[in-house]
């Protein structure tokens, strides 16, 4: 992976440092939004929980920071990112941090806040996607909430997914700098996240997406453009990109897709 960055002295480091991403090792999940930003930035990072226990990594290292009694600012849940002494949690907050450091967001405040606003909207969408298969409780098996999942997913594919994707389509349409990007004239972390949303929705709800895609051509064009970026296409073809599965957030249960 690419360049080594210097963190500003105000954050307490002068040494070149490697980011440590902490996320569940076997799924894309919310960690994927961070991975995509790190990959596009060519940042030097390790995916700690995917490393081996012998080298002080693996899930125990993640749990140590999550549950450790001495962490002054403990994250609530993965993903979180360690940058030297700083531990940053919440996907949208991690991206706010990385966006500023790797030119993946505008520098000016209005643009930065706009990007963050859109990312928080992605987070809302992700939570609703999760709830299509776990509408009652994350601690229960899907099989224990199938009836509720069917009702929830039916509303998601007919009402919520069109509303969210239609919103991002309008944002693209109204961008004064052109409809290739959500924010300004350049790629931002929000574009990377919208790519992931489209890829995930296609995996989870292929029939619903086949219908919906016709009404959001700019969103689909953005997805395709991101997939073709050299660092992203290399990442997608690499073993670092985990496959979608029924363990992650975007799950394919045929009975939850449209037309059932
Ligand atoms: N709002 C947080 C949600 C984090 C989250 O829910 N992480 C999941 C994995 S994707 C988790 O492990 N949650 C445990 C829990 O909520 O108890 C974010 O966007 O990062």
Model regions low in confidence, pLDDT < 50 over at least 5 residues = 1-10
Percent range for helical residues?
Answer: 40-55%
Q: How far apart, in Å, are the first and last alpha carbons?
A: 44 Å
Number of strands: 4
**Whole-angstrom Rg:** 19 Å
Structural class: mainly alpha
Placed side by side, the strands forming the largest sheet appear as 2-1-3-4
Choose one word for the global shape: globular
Mean pLDDT: 94
Bound molecules: glutathione
Largest sheet: 4 strands, mixed
Number of helices: 9
Element-level helix/strand string: EHEHEEHHHHHHH
Beta-strand percentage range: 5-15%
Descriptive overview:
The structure is a single chain. With 260 residues, the chain is mainly α. It has helices spanning 31-41, 59-67, 91-101, 109-133, 146-174, 189-204, 206-212, 217-228, 230-236; strands at residues 19-22, 45-47, 80-83, 86-89. It has a four-stranded mixed sheet with strand order 2-1-3-4, covered by helices on one side. Helix 1 crosses helix 6 (189-204). The longest helix has 29 residues, at 146-174. It is globular, with a radius of gyration of 19 Å. 37% of the residues are buried. Mean pLDDT is 94; it is low at 1-10. The chain binds glutathione. Glutathione is lined by residues 29-30, 77-79, 90-91, 123. Glutathione binds at residues 29-30, 77-79, 90-91, 123.
């Amino acid at each position: 992976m690419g360049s080594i960055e210097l963190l500003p002295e105000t954050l307490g480091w002068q040494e070149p440092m490697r980011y440590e991403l902490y996320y569940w090792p076997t799924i894309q999940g919310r960690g994927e939004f961070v991975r995509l930003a790190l990959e596009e930035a060519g940042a030097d990072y390790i995916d700690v929980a995917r490393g081996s226990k012998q080298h002080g990594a693996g899930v125990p290292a993640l749990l140590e920071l999550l549950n450790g009694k001495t962490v002054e600012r403990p994250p609530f849940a993965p993903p979180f990112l360690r940058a030297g002494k700083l531990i940053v949690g919440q996907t949208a907050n991690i991206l706010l941090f990385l966006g500023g450091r790797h030119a993946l967001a505008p520098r000016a405040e209005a643009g930065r806040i706009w990007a963050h606003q859109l990312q928080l909207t992605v987070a809302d969408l992700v939570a609703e996607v999760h709830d299509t298969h776990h509408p009652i409780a994350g601690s229960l098996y899907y099989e224990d909430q199938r009836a509720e999942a069917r009702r929830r997913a039916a509303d998601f594919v007919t009402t919520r997914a069109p509303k969210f994707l239609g919103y991002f389509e309008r944002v693209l349409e109204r961008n004064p700098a052109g409809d290739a990007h959500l924010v300004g004239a350049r790629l931002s972390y929000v574009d990377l996240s919208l790519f992931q949303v489209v890829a995930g929705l296609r995996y989870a709800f292929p029939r619903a997406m086949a219908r919906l895609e016709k009404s959001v051509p700019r969103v689909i064009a953005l997805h395709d453009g991101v997939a073709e970026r050299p660092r992203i296409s290399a990442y997608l073809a690499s073993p670092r990109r985990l496959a979608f599965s029924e363990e992650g957030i975007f799950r394919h249960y045929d009975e939850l897709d449209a037309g059932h």
